[in-house]
Every structure is written in structure tokens, then in C-alpha cells.
Design a protein that fits this description.
It holds the Pfam family Recombinase. This is Recombinase family protein. One of its GO terms (molecular function) is DNA binding. By secondary structure, this protein is of the alpha/beta class. Helices cover about 40% and strands about 15% of the residues. The protein has 4 domains: about 140 residues, 3-Layer(aba) Sandwich (Rossmann fold), CATH 3.40.50; about 140 residues, Putative Large Serine Recombinase, Chain B, Domain 2 (Hect, E3 ligase catalytic domain fold, Alpha-Beta Complex); about 150 residues, no CATH class; about 55 residues. Strands 2-1-3-4-5 form a 5-stranded mixed beta sheet, sandwiched between helices. The protein has a 3-stranded mixed beta sheet with strand order 10-15-16, covered by helices on one side. Strands 6-7 form a two-stranded antiparallel sheet. The chain is elongated and about 105 Å long.
């Protein structure tokens, strides 16, 4: 008979039913009975509760067009095929309807006879009971580990390492002092306005090991392919950084499948000391949110990319460059997108980028160069506002989970009520306390715009500085001879050539106040 060998393992570290042992046993059984193995369905790190049709490998063979014809679905034991009675019975029925049968040689199961099918279903009952017992025991073990402050296993977030529990029993998560400076530097850079893509490039250029490579080196492991050949170092990417920076693991909280794991009181499980303060976490998420939907795509090495607009129709100016190797010359321009993309009859010709940038900078620094740069900084609340917000969020998520059917049955209802009452009690107690919410303040930096500009080294840093200042550059078809500094104000000095600039109202007000002080002689 043609046999499909089924191999399943919940955890690849389980040596008692390793893939190699399962494969060798099935091969020996097939040879002894004169069968031919036509294929393997090997699903590793897959729970026995997952339906056979939903498994990556076995599911392919159970479809209408399997990779090869087969007569028998065979596993080492029933629990390697499934630990769910319902799924196993469904598989038996599916096989019978198609003239196939199911076998598990170590359990002496063969559903090709009525007696064999009966024995298989009885053994499947015990397999499902064992799965539920293991799940309950594992849940109790995790709960007990949390109560004692121990780490129960699982992936370790970048910035942490496992360390022995002070009692000597088990492990806890401690700060990884080799990775922590890199992590906190990344957080500070994002809060300061750097993009995750540029940070990833810098980390790769400096040769900083990626989280996976760092963990392998720290734990003395070698990352290799299945054939034993070493893997190439993994690079930092924008996606890697974002996934790391939005994870609540930075606060020492436990997540599973992208959701926060909650304790019996309804609050997030705290399994380690936070890697960064909560105030930095909030500022980090605020910075990341602001970068998820940029209004304009920044072109590389273009000072005014996303900041320059056509003075005739208001369309963004796109940065273009052209290299002529035979002349060893490079040409950089800003072109009206309304003319190149939408077919508008814009009269403005594409100006040289060097001219536009120099004129815009001269006008901008001429207005604000002597003003002090103000920095937007998060001032954390001095009371329980953040804690109250966490409790409210936990209540909302708990209600959503209940509505989604996650707390069904008598036990689930009891757990839901217990957590909800606990959270309501916390909220009532916090509501009695005075609440001063976090706020953003503009804080003086002690540096003028001109001093800050001169200290910046790269085009990307200077462009980010102009963007933070709210600069908008308008490039006109003809030179702008005289133009008022701001709408409604008296005419000011001539702008730079075909370029005029706009700045936010708060910065306009500061420029006018500074000019008034200079006129009156007030310091």
C-alpha cells in the first residue's frame, strides 16, 4: 500500500518523539508490512489541537489534489496524528469515504476494520484527555511561575537575557547589558525624529548584530541551515525595528500573538523590569505614529524633499537628478509634480536644486536665525493618570474579549467577573485621587536656529530640522521682488530670487516680537 507518513511535534526540543525517531519508526513499519512511503507530512511546532486540514504540510495532502496518491495515513502514535477526538474521528470518516484508512503502528491501530476503528476512537479519547491535562498543567505552571516572578520560557525580547532566579529554581528575565545601550540609543533616536529605516542602515553600517544574531552569540549557539551550513548574518530592517519598538516587551510586559497577556486582576502581566521608562514609551509611540503616514515621500539626499512646492499651482516639487559620466557632472533639479504627473500647464521651469536650497535657506535663517530653538518635550504627569488610563484600557479590552466569546462557560464567566470587579475597584480608588495628565511643553534648548543648523552634518539631519520647524518653500515662475513676510503684515525685505518661504504662525509671532525688540532697543 501507498503510505503517507505523518510527523508532528509540538516542540522541536522534545527528543522522545523527535522527527528523526518518528521517521525511522514509520519507515521500518512500512518495510516490515510491504508498504511504500510515497510522501511525508512533517509539521513541527504544531499543536495536536490544530485540525489536520489546517496544518501547513498535512493539509496539502488532504486536499482535492495531493502531491501524490496514497492509501494510508500513518503516524507513529495517534497523538502524533491528532490529540482532538473530534478531529481524529473526522479524519477517519474522511479516509473511509475515499477508500483510505488511518494507522498508528505503536498503538496497534488500523481503521481498515471495524474493530480497528473502534480501538482508534477509544484511544483518541485518551489522547484528547491527555492534551487537556497537559494544557491545564502548563497553564498552572505558568501562573505559578508568574506569582514567583520566574520566567516560564518562550522568546526573549531584545534587551533581555535569562538569569537564574535568586532562589536557585528556574530563571528570571534580566537586562542584557550588552544590548541595552543599543536599544536605548534606538529609542532616543526615534524620539528625536530619526526614521527607523535610517537607523537600520546605520546599525548595519556599524556592524551591530541583529537581535537574532546577538541572541545566538550570547547563548553560544551557531545559526545554521538544516544541512549544517552557517547562515549569513541577519540585517537590521525597518520592519524589525518597528516590530521591536511597538512591543510592550519594552515595558517588561508579556505578549502572545500580538495581544497583551493579562493576569487574574485584568492588568498586563509584568514579567520583567522595564527596559525604558513609561514616559519614553509614550513619546516613542507618539513618534512612531507620526511616521506611519508621512504626507510626502522623502527623496534621498534632497534638502527640500517634501518641503518645496510650486508657487504657481501648489503642487509638490519632486527631486530629480541626472549624471553625465562622460562630463563627470551631476545635475540636481526640483520639478513641479503637477506638470510631470498630472499634465498641468505649469509655467515654472525646473530650477537647479542648489539655487533653490541656497535661496530658501538664506531667507529662512534671515528671519529665524537669531531665535532660540524650542523643543517639544513630554512632561509626565505627577499622579495616577497613566495608571487610571491603563485600567480603563484593560476594562475596554476585557469587554471586547468577552464580546468575542473568549470568556464563555461557567469557568470563563467566573474569571471574567473576577477580573472585571478587580479592575472596577482599582478604577474607583484611582478616581478619588487628583489627576494631572501628561502634557507636551515647548522647552528652550539654549541654541539658536543658526547654531543648530551649523552643527548638523548630513542632508537628512538638516532636512528633518527644517521639517520640524514647519518650513514650506514656494518656487515661482518669475523672481519675487518684494513680498510681505506674513499674510496681513507690512511688506518685508525681498525674498531670494524665485523663492519665498512660509513658517508656522507661532514662529511668525516670535519673529515679529524679536523684530519689535530690536527696533525698540529692548534686549
Amino acid at each position: 500500500m501507498r503510505v503517507l507518513g505523518v510527523i508532528r511535534l509540538s516542540r522541536e526540543t522534545d527528543e522522545t518523539t523527535s522527527p528523526e525517531r518518528q521517521r525511522a519508526g514509520l519507515t521500518a513499519w512500512a518495510v516490515a508490512h510491504g508498504h511504500i512511503i510515497v510522501g511525508w507530512a512533517e509539521d513541527l511546532d504544531v499543536s495536536g489541537a490544530v485540525a489536520p486540514w489546517e496544518r501547513p504540510e498535512l493539509g496539502r495532502w488532504l486536499g482535492d489534489q495531493p502531491p501524490a496518491p496514497f492509501d494510508v495515513v500513518a503516524g507513529m502514535k495517534i497523538d502524533r496524528i491528532s490529540r482532538s477526538l473530534l478531529h481524529f474521528v473526522q479524519l477517519i470518516d474522511w479516509a473511509r469515504e475515499r477508500g483510505k484508512h488511518v494507522a498508528a503502528y505503536m498503538d496497534a491501530v488500523d481503521t481498515s476494520t471495524d474493530t480497528g476503528e473502534l480501538v482508534a476512537k477509544v484511544l483518541a479519547i485518551f489522547a484528547e484527555f491527555e492534551r487537556k491535562t497537559i494544557a491545564a498543567r502548563s497553564a498552572d505552571s505558568r501562573r505559578h511561575a508568574r506569582q514567583e516572578g520566574r520566567w516560564h520560557g518562550g522568546s526573549i525580547a531584545y534587551g533581555y537575557r535569562k538569569a537564574r532566579h535568586p532562589s536557585g529554581k528556574g530563571y528570571v528575565l534580566a537586562h542584557d547589558l550588552d544590548a541595552l545601550p543599543t536599544l536605548r540609543g534606538i529609542v532616543a533616536d526615534v524620539i528625536d525624529g530619526k526614521s527607523t529605516a535610517s537607523i537600520a542602515r546605520e546599525l548595519n553600517a556599524r556592524g551591530v548584530p541583529s537581535p537574532r544574531d546577538h541572541a545566538a552569540a550570547r547563548d553560544g549557539k551557531t545559526r545554521a541551515h538544516k544541512d549544517g551550513t552557517p547562515r549569513k548574518p541577519q540585517a537590521w530592517t525597518d520592519t524589525t525595528l518597528r516590530r521591536m519598538l511597538v512591543s510592550r516587551a519594552l515595558l517588561g510586559q508579556l505578549e502572545h500573538m500580538g495581544r497583551v497577556v493579562r493576569d487574574t486582576d485584568g492588568l498586563p502581566v509584568q514579567r520583567a523590569e522595564p527596559l525604558i521608562p513609561e514616559a519614553d514609551w509614550k513619546a516613542l509611540q507618539h513618534a512612531l505614529d507620526g511616521k506611519r503616514k508621512p504626507k510626502y515621500r522623502a527623496a534621498p539626499a534632497a534638502l527640500l524633499s517634501g518641503l518645496a512646492f510650486c508657487g504657481e499651482d501648489g503642487s509638490p516639487l519632486h527631486f530629480h537628478w541626472m549624471v553625465k559620466p562622460e562630463r563627470n557632472q551631476e545635475y540636481r533639479y526640483y520639478r513641479c509634480s503637477g506638470r510631470t504627473q498630472r499634465g498641468l500647464k505649469c509655467e515654472a521651469k525646473a530650477p537647479r536644486a542648489e539655487t533653490v536650497e541656497a535661496d530658501a535657506l538664506a531667507v529662512f535663517l534671515g528671519m529665524v536665525g537669531d531665535l532660540e530653538v524650542m523643543e517639544r518635550r513630554l512632561i509626565p504627569g505627577e499622579d495616577h493618570t497613566a495608571e487610571l488610563a491603563r485600567v480603563d484600557q484593560a476594562l475596554t479590552e476585557l469587554r471586547d474579549d468577552r464580546a468575542a466569546g473568549l470568556y464563555s462557560g461557567d469557568r470563563g464567566t467566573a474569571e471574567y467577573r473576577s477580573m472585571y470587579l478587580s479592575l472596577e475597584g482599582k478604577r474607583a480608588a484611582l478616581a478619588e485621587l487628583p489627576n494631572v495628565p501628561d502634557r507636551w511643553d515647548m522647552v528652550p534648548t539654549g541654541r539658536t536656529f543658526r547654531e543648530t543648523w551649523d552643527a548638523l552634518a548630513t542632508v537628512e539631519e538638516r532636512r528633518a530640522f527644517l521639517a520640524d520647524a514647519g518650513l514650506r518653500v514656494n518656487v515661482h515662475a518669475e523672481p519675487v521682488r518684494t513680498r510681505s513676510l506674513f499674510p496681513g503684515e507690512p511688506s518685508g525685505p525681498a525674498t531670494g530670487g524665485r523663492v519665498s518661504v512660509e513658517i508656522p504662525h507661532d514662529l511668525q509671532r516670535r519673529v515679529l516680537e524679536h523684530a519689535a525688540r530690536l527696533t525698540s532697543g529692548t534686549p
